[in-house]
Design a protein that fits this description.
Number of strands: 17
Organism: Cellvibrio japonicus (strain Ueda107) (Pseudomonas fluorescens subsp. cellulosa)
Protein name: Beta-ketoacyl synthase
Keywords: Transferase
GO cellular component, one term: cytosol
Radius of gyration: 19 Å
Shape: globular
Number of helices: 11
Oligomer: single chain
Family: Belongs to the thiolase-like superfamily. Beta-ketoacyl-ACP synthases family.
Strand content: 15-25%
Largest sheet: 12 strands, mixed
CATH topology: Peroxisomal Thiolase, Chain A, domain 1
Amino acid sequence: MIFGKMTPLRITSYTYTTCLGAGLNANWDAIQAGRSGLQPCTFFRINDLDTWVGEVAGLDQALPPSLAEFDCRNNRLSWLALQQDGFITRAQSAIARYGAARVGIFIGTSTSGIHQTELAYFANQDPLPAWYQYRTTHNVSSVATFVRAALGASGPAIAISTACSSSAKVFASAQRALNTGLCDAAIVGGVDSLCLTTLYGFHALQLISPRKCQPFDSQRSGISIGEAGGFALLEKTGDSNLCLLGYGESGDAYHMSSPHPEGAGAQLAMGAALRKAGLDTSAIDYINLHGTGTQTNDSAEARAVQQLFGNTTPASSTKGWTGHTLGAAGIVEACIALEAINYHYLPQSLHLQDVDEGMDIALLKHPETRPVARVLSNSFGFGGSNCSLILGSH
């Protein structure tokens, strides 16, 4: 069925890479240690932005010769993330099992390899340098094409770019493709890398913080931008008890960049996810909040959560560890949600000290160890593009 309660999809493999490190263990060890990956911004020798970023190490090495036409920072980050936790082996096993044409690729990104165009511009040549290939680097669909080429799949390949909800929406698109028979397995993910466009763009919007981000804190002053890549393998059957149970999508239709002040769209997305999962709010053990650290986002999200869940369901933002990874935020926080279920551990909102007025929800200032069976993960993008996922054991 497309509407109503969905049949859970098995998540048979997943991995993510952030400024905390490459792969599940590196990230989870840092989260449990309360160690942020944010550092003062030195990306591309920037010296005029007073902010902190989540920069991933190890992106200096070019792609293998067979993938050289895709070489750019964004696809190097994709390649680094794909190689963690045996993900390539599990994905290629699924491709062998179902057939290459029956495995779909669904990848979210906001700016893709736009930094490659920035480098071409700085080369100051007319025409642009011969090494610059827009189609396989900057083009928003290039990351999905790269992942398909790297894994050897030939099913449908779709790139979704809806700002910060991009790699949450890939789960919804993949479920619909599986449900309608377009494919038998889906590789979903998100990759977004640092570039001057986003750093200076958010600076122009007066949204970047001079400190490590402090979502929901009374002293919060904006976001810390990060970069990340992550992937998950979705199948109708499998040996994993971790599942996509539901998803909800909505559009605010309110403002080009600001969320609806009452969180109307966010509440719609969360409610739709609960209906899709056939659950009520009491079944959710933890909410991974979008929680960027901006005044408007945190206020709107808190109101939406309070109206739907009240103030008892534990909730936190994990952007204090990774920064806001924009188009990769959905997959990163889905992976953190799955790890919370695996370890029965709820991470705190790092850097939260003094909860702001009006945030009447159960924000975690300290980690908690308790049974966790189902997590709701929010991703809310510019323009009011909202997506909520419900992940859980089944």
